[in-house]
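PROTEIN DATA CARD
Card holder: Oxidoreductase
Chain length: 220
Origin: Capsulimonas corticalis
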Amino acid sequence: MQMAREGGKVAVADISDDGAQTVLDIEKDGGEAIFIKTDVSHSGQVQAAVQAAVDNWGKIDVVVNDAAMMTFTPIVDLPDEDFDRVLAVNVRSVFLFCKYAVPHMRPGSAIVNISSVHAHETTKNVVPYAASKGAMEAFTRGFSEELVSRKIRINCVAPGSVDTPMLWNNPNIKSGAEKITGAVGKPEDIASAVCFMASSEAKFVNGTTLIVDGGRLDIL
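Structure generated from the sequence above:
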């Protein structure tokens, strides 16, 4: 929503039909958006999503990689396929969108990946998620060097606790195993940071992570 309010035309790639509602909300707010139902871990579907954006607007200025999932099982009990799925959704998707969107991005464009404070400090039973976010940040640092010649920036935004269903449906939160201490942000707090990192105002910021957590990392 925030990207559209700042003048962006938004392609929402989502495996859930919630993405269609996001598009309706953007349009009701006077913005322009399209919905592409997409399994972001699937190469062919990512390519189709990228092509849909290009077909509509001729180019891509900003990519925001925001897909994520978590598991809440100790590693020794975790099914192999659950680990693979977390890495596919959280990391492979970043690789795929970067690979297929960058050829359509002009100098001055930007990629913003949504990481997490769990890449830096974490808790038990969410190891695949924490590992995936650490991998995302390493990918971002390395790929930033490959993008220098194209004059495209790539960075991460790492939220802390944010008032979303993903937070409150976390079994560790519900059971009390993980305590929410400190500030809980709103989605718009993260959106503002993403828009900044995508904008020309952040033109000298590249290959790094902006932590947006209300100080949560300090007390994890």
